[in-house]
Design a protein that fits this description.
two-stranded parallel ribbon, Rossmann fold, alpha/beta, UDP-galactose 4-epimerase, domain 1, globular, 9 helices, 2 domains
Length: 297
């Protein structure tokens, strides 16, 4: 296939571009060329908000839009795309209000989530703009994505904690649920969608939810270690010392499982994450969790 990927230099978009290029597709990436490019893709250099005809004369079998955060992002790209067959948008679980009954289903009504604020409502507007103009487009709503190239200080923080050998400060009793999805499974899911062309257009994706305690234990196990927990029961904003908000949710992934039932097990995925991180620490910008912990615990 001839594929256009928006982005292509950071985490999800970079992994997607590399995955499809490595699987014998002709991959174009659309970005500003401010970061190193993958060697086996073709660069279309521009800001997606100011494409200026750079896509003129090009036909794509598939467009995979990873970097659409607003309706304007969608409309600008569609205004400049001359010809394409399939369109896949990577949206977010942030489109579901936190007040809904768990697990969130694709059929649930989207709305503002107080945790995610404008990020979630802008994603809803982007989805709606795409549905209006490309009714047969696929929209994928992942939970927390992880895997190689992750530049966000999430599992990397836990790996750093394990390396230090200090106790891990766990919010409350550690029972808050989290849901993850490996970026390679995201790519595999997109591949199958394009092959079978299901009539369902919106999909939740993700592994089964786990607790934050289980997540930390999995990350430590990737390094052959076991955490010693200290439960933080004081009224302290957990984002000061832990990489996730005090907000647990779960997506119903029944429709995904009918298409791709064999996901990467979380212990295997986080082992891969650690293997990548230990050789690429400079690409992940740490947050000041350790400073806060040292000052307050």
């Amino acid at each position: 296939m001839k594929i256009l990927v928006t982005g292509g230099t950071v985490f999800v978009s970079k992994f997607i571009a590399e995955y499809f290029a490595d699987n014998d597709n002709e991959v174009y990436v659309l970005n500003r060329n401010t970061k190193p490019q993958l060697p086996n893709v073709k660069l279309i250099q521009c800001d997606r908000k100011n494409i200026n005809g750079r896509l003129k004369g090009l036909h794509f079998d598939t467009v995979i839009d990873v970097t659409a955060y607003t309706a304007e992002d969608i409309n600008t790209l569609l205004d400049n795309l001359e010809s394409f067959d399939n369109f896949v948008m990577i949206s977010s679980s942030a489109v579901y209000p936190e007040t809904l009954e768990l697990p969130f289903k694709e059929s649930d009504e989207c709305g503002k989530n107080k945790i995610w604020g404008d990020y979630g409502t802008n994603k809803i507007a982007a989805e709606n703009a795409l549905k209006k103009r490309v009714p047969n487009a696929y929209i994928i709503r992942p939970p927390y994505l992880y895997g190689e190239y992750n530049n966000l200080y999430r599992e990397a923080f836990v790996f750093d904690c394990a390396e230090r050998g200090a106790p891990f400060y766990l919010p409350k009793d550690g029972s808050m649920p989290l849901q993850f999805f490996h970026v390679e499974d995201l790519c595999r899911f997109i591949e199958i969608l394009l092959k079978i062309q299901p009539t369902q257009k919106v999909f939740n994706v993700g592994n089964n939810p786990i607790t934050i305690k289980e997540w930390v234990e999995i990350c430590y196990a990737a390094m052959g270690k076991t955490p010693k927990f200290i439960n933080v029961t004081a009224d302290i904003e957990q984002r000061n010392y832990f990489p996730f908000y005090d907000y647990g949710y779960a997506l119903d992934t029944t429709l995904q499982n009918e298409i791709v039932p064999d996901l990467i097990p979380l212990p295997v995925g986080f082992q891969r994450s650690y293997n990548w991180y230990k050789d690429n620490k400079s690409t992940v910008k740490p947050k000041n969790y350790f400073d806060f912990i040292e000052r307050n615990f």
